[in-house]
Design a protein that fits this description.
The structure holds two protein chains of two kinds. By secondary structure, chain A is an alpha/beta fold. Helix content of chain A is 63%, strand content 10%. In chain A, helix 10 crosses helix 11. The chains are: A alpha/beta, B alpha/beta. Chains A and B meet through helix 13, strand 4, helix 19, helix 20 and strand 7 of A and helix 1, helix 6, helix 7, strand 7 and strand 8 of B.
C-alpha cells in the first residue's frame, strides 16, 4: 500500500472514531436535511430571507443604482453562504470514511491488496451522484452570480428563487405531490411537444414564403405554436393563408386537450395526496403540542371524556383504527389519527415524547384485549407515563393491571355503587351529583397551596374564605396523605396541600385571586 | 336501616346486574334476579342467588305477586337498550307504585327510559366518563368524593329531615356556624314546600328552616348522630 492510501485509510478510521467529527456532521445533517429538527426552521427562514433579498437587489438594479454595500452583500456574502450550504450538503450526503473503511476491511478479509483506486472511484461516484441531482444543480447555479463580472450570469439569481423549494415546507409538499404524476406529465409533454413541433413546421412551410405573413422564421412559427396551444393566443402573430388557418384550428383543438389534461393531472394528484398531506399536518400539530391526553379508542365513553377534557381546556389526541370513529372525532373538532394504538409504529410516526408531552394515556377501547395491548405498547416505551384504562370484564382486571395500567375504571362496578347510592340516600346523592355536574353554578374545587399563598396565609383561619361564601370542605395534607375534613381555623397550611372548597364559580375565582395577592401590611 | 324492610329485584343477568346485586344486597331484605334464559337461571341459582325466569311478553302480575309491591325496588339492567325500555314501560304500565331504576347507555336512551316511567336513571357512559375526567383533572377531590359516596371511609353523606319541634325552626341557615358547632357541613337544603330543587349553602343562598326541610349534610358518623339528635330530626 502506498503512502497516500495509508494516509487516507488512517484518516478514515480516525474520523469514524472521532466523536467531535461525527457530532458536527450530525448537527449539519440535522440542520440541512432533518425536517423534525427544531432549529432547522430558523435556518430555513434565514435562507429564505437571503434569497428574497438577492431577488429584491436584482430587481432594483435594473433601473436604479444600488448601494455598493448591498452589492457586496449580494455578490459575496450571500454567494458565500450559498456556497457553504452547497458544500455542506455535499459533505453530509454520504460518509466517505465508511466507504473507504468498508473497502479496506473487505480487502483485508479476502487477504488481497487494498484497492485504493476503486475505493476512491466509489467515493467520487457518490459525490457525483449528489452533484447531478436536480436540487444540487439548482444550488450550484444559484451560486454563480458570485462571478458578477459576467453580467449575463446575473439572471442566474433567479435560480435562487428555485432554491425556495428546499426551504419552504409548503412548496416542498407541492413539488412532491406533482412528482407523483411524473408519468402523466411526461406523456402530456410528449404530446404537446409533438403537436408544437408538427404545427410550427407546418405553419412555417405554409406561411414563411408569403410576404404578408408575419411568420418569417422557424422561431416565429415555434413562438406562435406555443402561444396558441397554451390557449393564450396573444394575436401578435396570426396566420393569413387558408392552409395556415387550418393548422391553427388543429392546434387550438389540441390546446384545449392539453390544458384540460394538465389541470386534471394536477387536481387528481392533489386529491390523491390530500389525506396524506392532512395527516402530515396533523402529525406536525401533535409534535408542536406541549402537553396532552392521549385517548385510545373513540367509542361512547371516550367521546364524552374527550369532550369534557376539551371543555376544561386540555389538549387531547384521539387514536383509533376505526375510520368511522376518526371521522366522528374530527367532526367534534379533536385531533384524530387513524393509527393502531397497539402498534409501536404509530407512536414512532407521531414522534410522541411520552415523558414530556403526554399527561396521561387513556385506554378507552371497548375491548379488554385491545386495552391490554395498548397499555403494554405504551409501557414498553415509557415506564412512568400515567395510564388509565376502562375494564369491560372483571375477569381481566388482573391482566390489565399487569400490563402496567395505573388506574382501572370499571363501569359495571360504578353502576353497582350508584345502585347502592339510590337505595340508600337518594336525595343526598342527587344533591351531590348536582354539585358535581356544575350545572347549578356551584362546584367543588381543588386549590393547591403554593409558596406564594403560604407567605400570606399560614393557616385556614387566615384565608377568609367565608367572605366569599365558600365552604371549606377539607384540606388534603400532602405529607401524610391525610384528608382533614372540616378543618379548624388553626390548621397550618403547607406547600403542596390541597384545599377542597365548595362555592359559586365566580366566588371561587375571586377567592383564588385573593389568596394569590400580596397581603397589604397595614 | 329502614330499607331492610323492602325487597329488590334485578332484571338481567350480566356483569352490571351482578355488580348491582353485590352492592345492594346489604340494603334490602331480599334481592332477586329475573333472568331471560334457563342457562342464566341455572347459573344464578348455582351461585346461591334467588332467581326466577321472565320474558318480555309475560304477565307481570304473576311474577311480582310474591313481592310487596308498595316497597319494591326494581333495577332494569338488561343488556339490550330496546328491551330495557320495553321492560320499564311494561312494569310501569302494570305497577304504578314501584321504584324503577334503569340502566341507560347514553342521553338518548336515558330520556326514553324516563319517558317509559323509570324513576331514576343510571347513565353508564356519563358516569364512567365523569369518573375518568375526575381522576385526571382533580384526583384529590375525586378520591374523596368517591369515598364519601360509596362509604369507604368514616366520612358520610346523610339526609336529615327537620322535625316539627326542632329548636332551629325559624332560624336562618347562615345564622348558625354549623361546621364549628356540630363539626358537619350542610351542603344543601331541600324545602319540599317550595320546590324540589336544591338550595345550596355554597351558593350563599339563605333560607329559613321549616319543619320538613331536608338537610343534606357531610360529616363523621358520630357528629351526624349528634347533629340529628340536636336538631331533633330524623335520617331518611
Amino acid at each position: 500500500m502506498n503512502l497516500l492510501a495509508r494516509f487516507v485509510v488512517d484518516t478514515a478510521y480516525m474520523r469514524l472514531a472521532s466523536e467531535g467529527y461525527q457530532r458536527k456532521k450530525t448537527l449539519f445533517n440535522n440542520l440541512l436535511n432533518n425536517h423534525d429538527y427544531p432549529y432547522k426552521r430558523y435556518f430555513d427562514y434565514m435562507m429564505i430571507a437571503l434569497i428574497l433579498m438577492s431577488v429584491v437587489i436584482l430587481i432594483r438594479e435594473v433601473k436604479y443604482h444600488v448601494n455598493d454595500v448591498w452589492l457586496f452583500f449580494n455578490n459575496y456574502v450571500i454567494s458565500i453562504v450559498f456556497l457553504t450550504d452547497y458544500l455542506l450538503r455535499m459533505w453530509t450526503y454520504n460518509d466517505n470514511s465508511k466507504i473507504i473503511v468498508e473497502q479496506y476491511e473487505k480487502d483485508q478479509m479476502l487477504q488481497r491488496k487494498f484497492r485504493f483506486g476503486y475505493a476512491m472511484r466509489k467515493v467520487f461516484g457518490k459525490k457525483f451522484e449528489y452533484a447531478r441531482s436536480v436540487t444540487a444543480i439548482i444550488d450550484l447555479l444559484a451560486i454563480v452570480p458570485f462571478f458578477h463580472q459576467m453580467r449575463l450570469l446575473r439572471i442566474f439569481i433567479l435560480f435562487r428563487v428555485f432554491k425556495l423549494f428546499r426551504y419552504a415546507n409548503s412548496l416542498r409538499t407541492f413539488a412532491s405531490v406533482l412528482a407523483t404524476k411524473k408519468f402523466e406529465f411526461f406523456t402530456l409533454m410528449m404530446f404537446a411537444s409533438i403537436v408544437i413541433f408538427i404545427s410550427s413546421v407546418l405553419i412555417y412551410v405554409m406561411e414563411a414564403n408569403n410576404a404578408d405573413s408575419p411568420i418569417n422564421t422557424l422561431y416565429d412559427a415555434f413562438y406562435w405554436a406555443v402561444v396558441t396551444i397554451s390557449t393564450v393566443g396573444f394575436g401578435d402573430i396570426t396566420p393569413i393563408t387558408d392552409a395556415g388557418r387550418f393548422v391553427a384550428m388543429i392546434i387550438i383543438v389540441a390546446g384545449v386537450a392539453v390544458l384540460s389534461f394538465t389541470t386534471s393531472i394536477i387536481v387528481s394528484a392533489f386529491t390523491e395526496k390530500l389525506d396524506e398531506i392532512k395527516e402530515r399536518k396533523t402529525v406536525d400539530d401533535v409534535t408542536k403540542l406541549k402537553q396532552f391526553y392521549l385517548i385510545c379508542g373513540f367509542e361512547d365513553v371516550a367521546q364524552q371524556v374527550a369532550s369534557k377534557l376539551r371543555r376544561d381546556g386540555y389538549d387531547i389526541i384521539v387514536m383509533d383504527q376505526d375510520l368511522e370513529h376518526i371521522r366522528q372525532a374530527k367532526e367534534h373538532g379533536h385531533i384524530a389519527l387513524p393509527y393502531d394504538p397497539g402498534a409501536l409504529d404509530s407512536y414512532k410516526r407521531l414522534k410522541i415524547d411520552f415523558g414530556r408531552q403526554v399527561k396521561a394515556v387513556l385506554c378507552l377501547l371497548e375491548d379488554d384485549v385491545l386495552n391490554v395491548y395498548t397499555a403494554l405498547t405504551v409501557r414498553s416505551m415509557n415506564k412512568d407515563v400515567r395510564i388509565l384504562s376502562t375494564l369491560v370484564h372483571e375477569a381481566n382486571r388482573k391482566k390489565i393491571l399487569m400490563a402496567g395500567v395505573d388506574e382501572v375504571v370499571y363501569t359495571q362496578e360504578l353502576v353497582g355503587m350508584i345502585a347502592k347510592e339510590f337505595s340508600g340516600k337518594p336525595v343526598a346523592i342527587e344533591a351531590f351529583h348536582a354539585l358535581r355536574s356544575e350545572q347549578t353554578g356551584v362546584k367543588l374545587e381543588e386549590i393547591s397551596v403554593d409558596e406564594r399563598m403560604i407567605a400570606n396565609f399560614a393557616s385556614v383561619a387566615e384565608l377568609g374564605h367565608e367572605k366569599y361564601h365558600l365552604i371549606m370542605m377539607g384540606v388534603h395534607k400532602k405529607e401524610k396523605e391525610w384528608f382533614l375534613f372540616n378543618p379548624i381555623g388553626s390548621t397550618v397550611l403547607e406547600v403542596g396541600d390541597i384545599l377542597l372548597v365548595i362555592g359559586q364559580n365566580v366566588f371561587i375565582n375571586e377567592f383564588r385571586i385573593h389568596i394569590h395577592q400580596k397581603k397589604r401590611k397595614s | 336501616m329502614k330499607r331492610k324492610q323492602s325487597d329488590a329485584i334485578v332484571f338481567g343477568y350480566n356483569e352490571y346486574a351482578s355488580q348491582i346485586v353485590r352492592n345492594i344486597r346489604s340494603e334490602y331484605r331480599s334481592v332477586r334476579y329475573y333472568v331471560m334464559s334457563d342457562e342464566n337461571l341455572e347459573s344464578a341459582l348455582e351461585q346461591g342467588y334467588d332467581a326466577a325466569l321472565f320474558d318480555l311478553s309475560d304477565d307481570w302480575e304473576e311474577i311480582i305477586t310474591s313481592n310487596n309491591i308498595e316497597d319494591l325496588m326494581v333495577f332494569c339492567a338488561l343488556e339490550n337498550t330496546a328491551n330495557n325500555i320495553f321492560l320499564t314501560i311494561s312494569l310501569r304500565a302494570t305497577f304504578e307504585a314501584v321504584q324503577i331504576i334503569a340502566l341507560a347507555n347514553d342521553q338518548e336512551s336515558g330520556n326514553k327510559l324516563k319517558m317509559a316511567g323509570a324513576n331514576k336513571i343510571i347513565p353508564m357512559v356519563e358516569a364512567t366518563a365523569n369518573v375518568i375526567t375526575g381522576l385526571l383533572e382533580s384526583p384529590v377531590s375525586s378520591t374523596i368524593v368517591h369515598h364519601l359516596l360509596y362509604e369507604e371511609s368514616d366520612l358520610k353523606l346523610a339526609q336529615i329531615t327537620m322535625a316539627e319541634n326542632s329548636k332551629f325552626i325559624g332560624k336562618y341557615l347562615h345564622d348558625i356556624r354549623w361546621h364549628e358547632v356540630f363539626g358537619i357541613i350542610i351542603l344543601a337544603v331541600v324545602d319540599h314546600a317550595v320546590s324540589t330543587s336544591f338550595i345550596f349553602t355554597g351558593k350563599g343562598q339563605n333560607h329559613q328552616l321549616d319543619p320538613g326541610d331536608m338537610l343534606i349534610v357531610i360529616g363523621y358518623e358520630k357528629d351526624i348522630e349528634a347533629f340529628k339528635r340536636s336538631v331533633g330530626g330524623e335520617e331518611t
